[in-house]
Amino acid sequence: MKLVWGAASHVGMLRQQNEDAFIAEANVFAVADGMGGHNAGEVASALAIAGLQQAANVGFISAASLVTAINGANETIHQASGGPTEHRGMGTTLTALVPLPDTDGEPPRVVVANVGDSRAYLWRDNELKQVSADHSYVQELLSEGLITAAEARTHPRRNIVTRALGIEGDVNADSWVLPMVVGDRYVLCSDGLVDEVDDDQIALILRSQVHPQGAANQLVQVANDNGGRDNITVVVVDIIDEISVVAPVVEPQTPSTPRQFRVRLVVAAAVIIVMTAGTITAVGSYARGGYFVGFDGRGDDAQLVVFKGRTRQILWFNPTVQFDSGVQRQNVFPALADDIDDTPSYESLEKATAYVSSIRGVVDEQNSTEKTSG
User: Fold this and answer.
1) Which ranges constitute the DSSP H helices of the chain?
2) How far does CA 47 lie from the centroid of its chain?
3) b vs e for 14-52, b when ≥16 Cβ sit within 10 Å of the residue's Cβ?
4) What is the distance between the alpha carbons of residues 106 and 101, in angstroms, rounded to a whole number?
5) The domain 2-244 is classified under which CATH number: 3.60.40.10, 3.20.10.10, 3.40.50.150, 3.40.1390.20?
6) pTM (2 decimals)?
7) Confidence band for 73, pLDDT divided at 50, 70 and 90
8) Highest mean pLDDT out of 30-34, 79-83, 256-260
9) Cβ proximity of 241 and 2 under 8 Å
10) What angle do CA 205, 207, 212 make, to 5 degrees?
């Protein structure tokens, strides 16, 4: 048997940043949905995925080995959440699929594991089943018969999770070992999909899209079309028979004429130029994206300013000053100056300017008090 897969992730229609993360490789598939304060969610989800990838490099041999890797990721996130203020309390959901190595006397198997409300579905024999169990407040109400499935989809507290990586020092991950069956299709997704696309719609798309990448793309697109109120990430994994894989047809090659060679050379050069220009544009856009607060200089007379760009230089793109507060480092409380040295980042100039202006207001009030008392 062979695995083929596709994956897609989108920030959605309302959010400003994507706090989801995923991995889709031959020996590990996972989706993580981060939560927390400014930038904390994307840090937590990235740490979870990095932990799984590191464990996959060693290899998974059982359900227990996957759960151990998840516990390790939980510990890493929990420790990191005790660092910078903006990372405190961060956490992430996680749902994962891992194929197990063949063993004597055992059929090929996969392990599904999850923590939180990101889901794993199985599409088999034209029927969609949820493999994972949501760790959420609404799922508890549903399990107790206090609400219906239809009410659960629109419940105002549907996004409250009761279990997540990073919140506590220990976490209990649920896991299931399932036989690997040719024709099975697994879907791993964040709640940004299931909050916008019901199971019937998901089943319809899985039935109509033959290739997993096409299925992943369409699921994300429909979620956005239905509102896209959250980040959306989907990984689709198909189990197929290797014999059924269509091998590419290799046409016999004929020698190129000098003119054909020159044409191909020009085309290749043009492609390289376009790709290089596109890369530089993308890097420049990233390097100039966002704002951060810091001191413009190193001495006591360094000015408190708002920079546009990244805290570290990328290629030749340097951060530039967008707003000068007129406040010098020597006028700022030492503890606050130390916090500013960590270069807090903001999504907009308005938020960064408001933070700097509030510091200037404190300094001006202090100076006014000193003049009055003098």
Assistant:
1) 40-58, 63-80, 137-143, 149-154, 191-194, 199-208, 212-225, 258-287, 334-341, 349-373
2) 10
3) ebeebbbbbbbeebbbbbbbbbbeebbbbbbbbbbbebb
4) 10
5) 3.60.40.10
6) 0.65
7) very high
8) 30-34
9) yes
10) 70
Tens digits of residue pLDDT in 89-120: 899 999 999 999 988 778 899 999 999 999 99
**CA 103-109-113 angle, 5° bins:** 125
- Helices 212-225, 199-208: axis angle to 10 degrees equals 140
Q: Quickly state the pLDDT bin for 374 (edges 50, 70, 90).
A: low
| Burial 180-194, CB ≥16 within 10 A → b, else e | eeeebbbbbbbbbbb
The encoded tokens of residue 366 equal 């202090």
For residues 115 and 32, is the Cβ–Cβ distance under 8 A? no
Ranges for all domains in the chain classified under CATH 3.60.40.10: 2-244
Determine the length of the chain: 374
Strand partners, 366: none
- The backbone torsions φ and ψ at residue 85, rounded to the nearest 5 degrees and listed phi first, read -55, -40
